[in-house]
Amino acid sequence: MLSYANGKFISTDELSLPVQKDLIGTFRGFRIFTACRTLPNGKIFRFEDHINRLFSSAKVIHMELPHNKNELKEIVREVITKNNKDNGELLLEIMYSGGKAASNGIAPVGETILYILVLPLNLPPEEWYQQGIKLASFPYQRQWPEIKFLNYVGAVIAHQTVVKKYGADEVLFLSPDEKNIVLEGTTFNFFVIKNGVVFTHALDGKILPGITRKVVLELAYKEGVEVKEINFSLNELAEMDEAFITSSTRNIVPVIRVDNIIIGNGKPGGLTLKLARIFKKYQINY
């Protein structure tokens, strides 16, 4: 597979980041990205949404990009063309990194660097969708939660601690205070269902506006499923009938347990599975 680095195509296996030329990215963590996937028909799923979010993220942190939206889309399409259909469905990690540093070692100078990492799309095991997954909670608020920064230290620590403690598959972040408000996951948004109503955390600047989250809300409204974007706590999960996560590489995955809290009857719920089928049909016809 071929990836892209600052104007050049290079084998994904050989892709590396130049520390000195990208000091603001490699040492200061000034990087944003979006992770999107191709479908069997070669299209990038919700490509426009991914591009818009990436540029919105850049605006929030005052990062100057060397391309406009159309220029970036053309580069990404060329990347896909060079990775022909024999490679199957692809995961594209589109990243802008800070570039060179001024003499103070902090201020960026020169252009931001574009990298597009191309990988095979690896979907979760089928039993996740049939049996559901287990989450472990972890008090953590991401920096600038409304954008996709390349800072996953909270997720790494959580996987080294609470995931092992509870024998979980993934991590659910809670507000780092006594309220224990459910925020989002390490790389996903989180939903619960009670009496046929779908609940998820509001876009109040404390979670990432996930692309799959957006699609699920659109499809739910279209199907007449009531959705409420409100906050709820960890303790309230014991009262919920169903739960699920959403992400670009997972679609909709049922959740059957958080810590020691069993969700509903401990099996994937009916409405969750219905939404998953609707989502899959939408994706097939996209």
Total number of beta strands:
16
Overall mean pLDDT stands at: 96
Measure the end-to-end span: 25 Å
CATH superfamily annotation of the largest domain: D-amino Acid Aminotransferase, subunit A, domain 2
- Rg calc: 19 Å
CATH class of the largest domain: Alpha Beta
Fill in the CATH topology of the largest domain.
D-amino Acid Aminotransferase, Chain A, domain 2
Fraction in helix: 25-40%
Architecture of the largest domain in CATH? Alpha-Beta Barrel
Account of the 3D structure:
- By secondary structure, the protein is of the alpha+beta class.
- The chain folds into 2 domains: 2-120, D-amino Acid Aminotransferase, Chain A, domain 1, CATH 3.30.470.10; 126-284, D-amino Acid Aminotransferase, subunit A, domain 2 (D-amino Acid Aminotransferase, Chain A, domain 2, Alpha-Beta Barrel).
- It contains 8 helices and 16 strands.
- The chain is 27% helix and 28% strand.
- The protein starts with a strand and ends with a helix.
- Strands 8, 9, 10, 11, 12, 13, 14, 15 and 16 form a 9-stranded mixed sheet that branches. Strands 2-1-7-4-3 form a 5-stranded antiparallel sheet.
- Strand 15 (251-258) and strand 16 form a beta hairpin.
- The radius of gyration is 19 Å and the shape is globular.
- The chain has helices spanning 23-26, 47-60, 69-82, 126-131, 153-160, 162-166, 211-222, 270-284, and strands at 2-5, 8-11, 31-37, 90-97, 100-101, 108-109, 113-120, 133-139, 170-174, 182-185, 189-194, 197-200, 227-229, 242-247, 251-258, 261-262.
